Amino acid sequence: MKITAKEAGRVAELGRLKFSPEELETLASEMSNILDYVEKLGELDLEGVEPMSHVFGVMETRREREDEVRPGLSNDEALSNAPYPEEGCYRVAKVIDEGAGA
User: What does the pLDDT read at residue 11?
Assistant: First the structure.
């Protein structure tokens, strides 16, 4: 399936990603390759193949341990490596611009 740069641009826009025109061409080509591969998978004869819910067996993925109560860090210990602690909290840079896209 052929994806155009315009279609790749729309997908990027939905993900709020920005690409140059050259990058969009590359992205479109890579997306086309992925969809071609998925199409090939759809052509496989799976007669008699049992469906899998997971690549590994269920028991192999469930490596649970018993819960145990352990003391946590004190507030001072938790903030000991914080570059800019403020009033007993971590101060972080603003990461969301509430005006963008609203």
Answer: 96
